[in-house]
Amino acid sequence: MALQKELCNDLGLSLHEIKSILESGNQYKIIMELLNNQREKTDNKMQDLKELSDKLTYLLLCFYMIILLLTCILGTLLDSMYLAIGIGVILLFVLIYIHATQNAYVCPKCHKKFVITFLKDMLTLNNGKKENI
Questions:
Q1: Residues 66/71/74/75 CA torsion (nearest 10 deg)
Q2: For residue 116, which of 76, 82, 108, 120 is within the disulfide window of CB 3.0 to 4.6 Å?
Q3: Does the pTM of the predicted model rise above 0.90?
Q4: What is the pLDDT of residue 132?
Q5: Burial (CB count within 10 angstroms: exposed 0-12, middle 13-18, buried 19+), residue 55
Q6: Distance (Å, whole) CA 112 – CA 44
Q7: 23 CB-near residues (< 8 Å, 6+ apart)
Q8: What is the mean pLDDT of each run of 10 residues along the chain (133 residues)?
């Protein structure tokens, strides 16, 4: 009984909801339905966060491309393409570093979370993701 109350509290249920669950004859059925609902909500939230992360990654990439274009224009105006290339490379490394430190991946088989290194993020074309792992 105490375990059920703790589980209900962890699910964010109100005291009234917990009381009605404990007084009902189908406690386990109701708890399983609540767990399934909670899992669905969590999955939806994770999907929303992944979409937001993808949008932010594309936004950073667009930001990098704009800065790179501006540095090329500046390099042309100053007759120093080496300066433009140097600034572009430094900005690319900063973008890769931000991406490598802010993103983590989940193995599709074991569902273990892992983080890729800066070097792996820089050298792989697929951001460290591999299909059919």
A1: -140
A2: 120
A3: no
A4: 42
A5: exposed
A6: 19
A7: none
A8: 64 73 78 80 89 84 82 79 80 80 77 80 62 42
Query: What does the DSSP 8-state code read for residue 12?
Result: T
Mapped onto helix, strand or coil, the DSSP state of residue 130 is coil
Is the C-alpha dihedral spanning 24, 26, 32, 36 positive or negative? negative
User: Could you tell me the CA-to-CA distances from 128 to 28, 47, 63, 72 in Å, in that order?
Assistant: 42, 19, 22, 29
pLDDT at 3: 57
pLDDT of 88: 79
Amino acid in the structure at residue 38: Q
**φ and ψ at residue 106, rounded to 5 degrees:** -120, 130
120, 98 Cβ separation under 8 angstroms: no
Measured CA to CA, the distance from residue 38 to residue 66 in angstroms comes to 42
Cα torsion 124, 130, 131, 133 to 10°: value is 160
How many residues does this entry show for the chain? 133
E strands of the chain, at which residues? 105-106, 113-114
